[in-house]
Amino acid sequence: MTNATAHINEESRVVLSARGLRRDFGGFTAVRDVDLDVHHARVHALIGPNGAGKTTVFNLLTKFLQPSAGTINLLGTDITRTPPDKVARMGLVRSFQISAVFPHLTVLDNVRVALQRPNGLAHQFWRPLAALDTLNERAEQLLASVGLAKERDIVAADLSYGRKRVLEIATTLALDPKVLLLDEPMAGMGQEDVSVIADLIREVARTRAVLMVEHNLSVVANICHHVTVLQRGEILAEGNYETVSNDPRVRVAYMGTEEA
Ligand SMILES: Nc1ncnc2c1ncn2[C@@H]1O[C@H](COP(=O)(O)OP(=O)(O)OP(=O)(O)O)[C@@H](O)[C@H]1O
């Protein structure tokens, strides 16, 4: 095998897949027959109108919800019956909303706390912060890599909304995920912050898979290699952004018309 071939294989490797995923809530089926392949080093968007089932799919993949039917495979291991904490330790990590950031700790301490639970476990929380000093170097590297070095001593509560989201991503990266799930990372942001986070997501996806739910379609167009469109719990269309955005069924689902 040539190096070029090895590179292509590495790039196209499926790291997370679902087959026939289904979730019922009582008599209501929120997710039905969903097949998904998430690739290493690619940004994959999950889009769809409100109530399409995007959050439910995220909850199923991270095992916060148990599927009613179907299978999920992470890095070659069937995780359909695996509990969520173990799935996180295996490398599938969801970026939590801002509440995951400790508002009264500095930026640096937030990352140090995240680094000392590399397996997603919080059992060492009682340790005094001073005991985390050995993690300083890694924390500083991580902050530099996401562009937060200058804000290291700022208390998280004093950061702007956009910078808090960057810190949130940094604390998630501290867990060194192989597959990163981002839940509407651009929600509530101004255009400047959107560009910064978009660049950051592109960068972090160079060495891991990213699956993101996102309503901002220009972001999806700019940074996502692959798009899956959900509607009423089922896959309506998939492919690159150009393919799905030109699909008449997607236009109807989003705008109620086939016209552009
Ligand atoms: N725990 C639950 N019990 C009952 N129904 C639920 C539950 N969770 C979700 N649903 C329903 O499943 C459907 C899909 O919801 P979901 O939140 O996954 O959609 P979504 O695509 O994430 O929507 P949004 O873009 O508005 O966040 C909705 O009709 C919702 O009401």
UniProtKB/TrEMBL annotation:
Which UniProt key words apply to this protein? ATP-binding, Nucleotide-binding, Transport
Highest taxon of source: Bacteria
Residues of the ABC transporter domain: 16-257
One cellular-component annotation, GO: plasma membrane
Pfam name, any one:
BCA_ABC_TP_C
Q: Which Gene3D superfamilies match?
A: P-loop containing nucleotide triphosphate hydrolases
Molecular-function GO terms, alphabetical:
ATP binding; ATP hydrolysis activity
Signal sequence coordinates = none
> Which InterPro entries does UniProt cross-reference here?
AAA+_ATPase (IPR003593), ABC_AA/LPS_Transport (IPR051120), ABC_transporter-like_ATP-bd (IPR003439), BCA_ABC_TP_C (IPR032823), P-loop_NTPase (IPR027417)
Q: CDD domains, per this entry?
A: ABC_Mj1267_LivG_branched
> Any idea what this protein is called?
ABC transporter ATP-binding protein
